[in-house]
Amino acid sequence: MARVYTNWERLVRATLEREQLRNAGPGHERRPSGISGAVQLPPSLGRATNIDAILQAADEIQAENPHVARILCEQAYGMAQNLDPNSEGRGVLQFKTGLMSVIKVPLHKHSLL
């Protein structure tokens, strides 16, 4: 049970840090990496949800537990699918395609990302 609380705290911490970065504006020194760097979240999805925070948490957890990271990516994909099922928003199709390609990578290859 302690592990659940630890992961929850990490998720909350990542969300708060992400909000601070978002409020600071797009700095030239920020370089996205990992899962959240592999897919660009469209503004239409980013305003309505916390998909970005979920992907950030997946980045942080991936090295320790790739199964949990994959579950988080699947959750983010499901949220995007529910918000825009026909991928009509600008960049939504590209985002969902990129995220699906990350999800479909075999687990042993995730450590190379």
Blueprint (SSEs and pairs):
Blueprint: H1 2-24, H2 34-38, H3 43-46, H4 51-62, H5 66-83, H6 92-104, H7 107-110
Helix pairs in contact: 1-4, 4-5, 5-6
Biased composition (Basic and acidic residues): 22-32
Region (Disordered): 22-41
Brief descriptors of the model:
globular, mainly alpha
Order of helices and strands: HHHHHHH
Arithmetic mean pLDDT: 80
Shape: globular
Output the structural class.
mainly alpha
What do you see in this structure?
Helix content is 70%, strand content 0%. It has 113 residues and is mostly helical. The protein has one domain. The radius of gyration is 14 Å and the shape is globular. Residues 22-32 have a biased composition (Basic and acidic residues). Residues 22-41 are annotated as: Disordered.
Give a brief outline of the structure:
The chain is mainly alpha-helical and 113 residues long. It contains seven helices and no strands.
